[in-house]
Design a protein that fits this description.
There is one protein chain. The chain is of the alpha/beta class. The protein has eight helices and six strands. Strands 3-2-1-4-5-6 form a six-stranded parallel beta sheet, with helices on both faces. Helix 6 links the parallel strand 2 and strand 3. Helix 1 packs across helix 4, helix 2 runs antiparallel to helix 4 and helix 7 packs across helix 8.
Length: about 240
């Protein structure tokens, strides 16, 4: 694969890191911790903002206990809601601080990210998880603190991951033409949206996360790799 790339944007779940870590460790941790977290910190402005946003969405005035139940239901549904992601990020911050877990990252991803950064390629993250959660994730990873590798962070406040306009906004924020940016993800629909915005794309199809490989028409024409080690970059 040969691409004139000047920056790389990567997804997290299923791309740099296993889907199972998020679903089996992070989500259950946040679900269990939500009631006590809201009770203890629900009046803090940074928390209240998101609780009120959820209450408004589900019909206006309702108790915090009801909001917690709604949020737990959204966790069960893996709903990509900005308020949920923000609150989860705050809860995970406490888990990381207490060393309840470290974030999984595939060794090939950590090695490639370091290699690309050493080669002068700016790296960015675009995930449905909030920016604070992203920083915590890479700051407390199995491979150590990787946050110095990244030049910027994007979450759904810039737009949905399956919307082409989001990737156009990211390219504008990075300050490069979209055709100079590579987006890595395990989600075909996200790659489709990025390609519609003019970005280069690569499907990361890890066998650990996708035992049935996506081949042929299933790739929607996106270059496919099973490891970051297989991503070959040509720079002009």
């Amino acid at each position: 694969m040969s691409m004139p790339i000047r920056a790389i944007v990567t997804d997290i779940e299923g791309t740099t890191s296993s889907i199972s870590f998020v679903k089996d460790v992070l989500f259950p941790y946040a679900r269990r911790a939500l009631p006590a977290f809201v009770k203890a910190r629900g009046q803090e402005p940074a928390v209240r903002r998101w609780l009120d946003a959820v209450a408004t969405e589900v019909g206006g005035a309702c108790s915090d206990a009801t909001v917690v139940e709604v949020l737990q239901g959204w966790i069960d549904q893996d709903r990509k809601h900005t308020a949920l992601k923000a609150l989860q990020g705050m809860i995970w911050a406490e888990g990381y601080r207490h060393a309840d877990f470290t974030a999984h990252i595939y060794p090939d991803a950590a090695a490639a990210l370091r290699r690309w950064r050493d080669a002068g390629l700016p790296l960015y993250v675009y995930s449905s998880g909030s920016v604070p959660a992203q920083r915590l994730f890479f700051g407390h990873s199995d491979a150590g603190d990787l946050t110095p590798l990244f030049s910027g962070w994007f979450d759904t406040e810039i737009g949905g991951k399956r919307e082409a306009s989001s990737y156009a906004h990211i390219a504008e924020a990075i300050g490069l033409p979209s055709e100079r940016i590579l987006f890595l993800s395990d989600v075909i629909e996200e790659l489709d949206a990025a390609r519609d915005a003019g970005l280069h794309t690569t499907l990361v199809d890890r066998r650990e996360d996708y035992p049935q490989p996506r081949l042929g028409e299933a790739t929607h024409g996106h270059p496919r790799v099973e490891s970051f080690a297989d991503v070959a970059l040509a720079r002009d």
